[in-house]
acylphosphatase
Amino acid sequence: MIVFKKLRNKYVIWHANRVKIPKFTPSIIVRKKAIFSGRVQKVGFRLEIYCIARRMKLTGWVRNLNNGSVEAELQGEESQINFLVNCMRSLKRASVKKLTIIDLPIREGEESFTIVE
């Protein structure tokens, strides 16, 4: 099981680093909570969000929920957050059945993106 998880994580990181991130027209800074429901746990979903968010210099966090969903708070340019959310919805190894997005107030001084265990 541990060997499988290491292989999966290696693949997820490789895949996330291959995502072509377009040049974005600057847009307003926002903070959004995204809750992804469906087959989103045990497929490297959190790690993929983490890797892409870090590449785009977004801040916030991502975690698994007890009900099988994945929750993320994402802060950065709105166009970048929309791009990341669409990337996650189109992942082949996961299946997002429901997506809930809630606008949140900006969190001043936040500097990084983390995985919350």
In short: The chain is about 35% helix and 30% strand.
